[in-house]
Amino acid sequence: LYPDPDFDLNKFNECVAERRAVLDHQNKDIAEALDLLREYWSLCHQTVTDERRALAFARAAAAVKCLPFKVTNPRQLKGIKDLGDGHALRVATQIVESGHSQEVEEKRNDKKFLSFQIFCKVFGVGPSIAKKWYAMGLRTAEDVKKRFDQLDVSKDNMISYGMAFYDDLNRPLQLVEAENTYKHITALAQRILPSVVTSMIGGFRRGKSSGHDLDVLFSYPEREHNEHGLIAAVREELDKKGLVVWSRYSRADGPRGVEIDSSPLPAGSAKDHLLVIMIILKYPLDGHFDQLERRDFSTEKNLGLFQLADSARPWRAIRVDLVGSTTAQYPYAQIGWTGNKQYNRCLRQYAKDAFNYSLSSTGLYDKRQHRWLPAQTERDVFDHLKLSYREPWERNF
Ligand code: DCP
Ligand code: MG
Predict the structure, then answer these.
(1) Distance CA 246, CA 19 (A)
(2) What residue owns the CA closest to ligand 1's atom 13?
(3) Whose CA is nearest to atom 3 of ligand 1?
(4) Which positions bind Mg(2+) (predicted)?
């Protein structure tokens, strides 16, 4: 039945977290169809059932990406865990049989879905805002631009920048551009703190040749218990060079956190704020707080729009996220921020089901023994979970 004589369906189904998916997998047409339905339901959902549908299509698409052979016969799809025996299997079968699914094409061209896609491409906008805009009769980015001053998000710093730089931020960032920016930021950080360790995470670490942003992870081996401030200092240096278009800096100090938007609203916006500083209460001030130790809240983060030199004009805006972690968190932050999102979901679910562990970007917590599990490297994390190590490029679920 399978072109790969070594393929063992039982083994494939036994543990989803053991699967691997490379970018250049063999079932792109099926995965594309299932991912489109995932996107449709995650943007246009009305009910909890629709949201579950989105997650089911995400799992089904991931399963197909993990198959080590090209599906040529619908019988090869039968019995695959996560593809199920319903809707996703039906769509996958249609694609294998005819290369076409009427439902997928109808959804792909659905007017509401197309508007939601446009709206959700605005930095800071998700399905709930898209839904409001659609209900107000807005359909295109032009519509939003024209009526932006009347929208209740017109004073939202992030969304205002998202609109002002809509075209720039929807132009994919190429690997070489990301690498140059990463080198620049690392050199700057090393001048401030020579022992800093950085890594390029997100999609580029998984082998993508372009992406929607650059993600950089920082760790500070010689500053254990005193990590705060480096990302703020890097942001400050970039700002002095005039390279910061917009940024939102946040950190959590114990139960309280600080969030700072650094830039005034873009020119032409409804109202100019100079600086917004919010003290946010991140954790409940009750007994659970001690249990969290420092592990859960010692990170610093900066979401930013930075200038990147451009051949056609002086610069264009690109999205850069700078994320801090303590040395103890580092391998967990590497895994969490490398992703992808579906791979994280799968690992976290497996950790919970198999061991009653809670896995996040800050650590692995054993809820039975009430302790955090230490790790020096990503391999240690896989060992804790009794999983084979997966390289970042095998995590493209
Ligand atoms: N992440 C996550 N859940 C989220 C957001 C992010 O698990 N809600 C993790 C997984 C992502 C990683 O962080 O892979 C980086 O987030 P990005 O949104 O930058 O995603 P990618 O880097 O994977 O994609 P892109 O190439 O589009 O930037
Ligand atoms: Mg990214």
Answers:
(1) 39
(2) 337
(3) 341
(4) 213, 215, 321
For ligand 1, atom 5, name the residue with the nearest CA: 341
Average pLDDT over residues 76-93: 96
3-class DSSP state of 336: helix
* Range 9-108 has CATH code 3.40.50.170: no
Evaluate if residue 277 carries a pLDDT over 80. Answer: no
Asked if this assembly's ipTM is beyond 0.85, the reply is yes
Q: CA dist 76 to 92, 205, 268, Å?
A: 11, 32, 57
Architecture (CATH level 2) of domain 111-153:
Orthogonal Bundle (1.10)
To the question of domain 337-394 being in CATH 3.30.210.10, the answer is: yes
- In the structure, ligand 2 is a single-atom ion and the residues with CB under 5 Å from it are 202-203, 211, 213, 215
Q: Of 105-119, 120-134, 215-229, 288-302, which range is least confident?
A: 288-302
DSSP one-letter code for 395: B
The answer to whether 215 is annotated as binding is: yes
Please list the alpha-helical segments (H only) found in 305-357: 330-338, 341-355
Place of tokens 């990463």: 182
pLDDT tens, position by position, 315-350: 999 999 999 988 889 999 999 999 999 999 999 999
CB of residue 203 inside a 6 A radius of ligand 1: yes
Q: Decide: 296 in ligand 1 pocket, CB within 6 A.
A: no
Same fold, 9-108 and 111-153: yes
Of all ligands present, the nearest one to the C-alpha of 170 is 1
| CATH class label, 173-327 | alpha beta
- The response to whether residue 335 sits with its C-beta less than 6 Å from ligand 1 reads no
Q: What are the sequence ranges of the domains in the chain?
A: 9-108, 111-153, 173-327, 337-394
pTM: 0.91
Q: Is the pLDDT of residue 227 over 80?
A: no
CA gap 382, 377 in Å, rounded = 9
Q: Whole-angstrom distance between the N-terminal and C-terminal Cα of the chain?
A: 24
How far is the C-alpha of 110 from the C-alpha of 106, rounded, in Å? 6
